[in-house]
Amino acid sequence: MSDTEESKPALDPMSARPLYIQLADVIAKQIATGKLAPDRPIPSENHLAEEYGVARLTARRTAQELRERGLIVTVRGKGSFVVEQPPTTD
In angstroms, how far is CA 25 from the centroid of its own chain? Predict the structure, then answer.
């Protein structure tokens, strides 16, 4: 558990960027680096709220943002899961 605390980036409540966007960027980076694997759940809204010190509504908006970006899919009664990302062609 200490490794998540050490690597957990701090959100900036004084930033002009909304907290839910900042948190979505953090989760998106974890997906991009493989820390959150495809077809595996992301932490629950309650867990995100507790871990990052944000309101549950902020965590819910984060999940909505990630769905809009096409990074996760939410299954009612099961949670939100990372979608398989197509290989990047640079």
Answer: 7
Separation CA 69–CA 23 (nearest Å): 13
The count of C-alpha atoms lying within 13 angstroms of the C-alpha of 49, restricted to the half-sphere facing its C-beta, is 11
Q: Check: CB of residue 62 under 8 Å from CB of residue 51.
A: no
- Enter the pTM of the model: 0.84
Eight-state DSSP code of residue 58 = H
- Segment holding 25, helix H or strand E: helix 19-33
Q: What is the mean pLDDT of each run of 10 residues along the chain (90 residues)?
A: 56 95 97 95 96 96 97 95 77
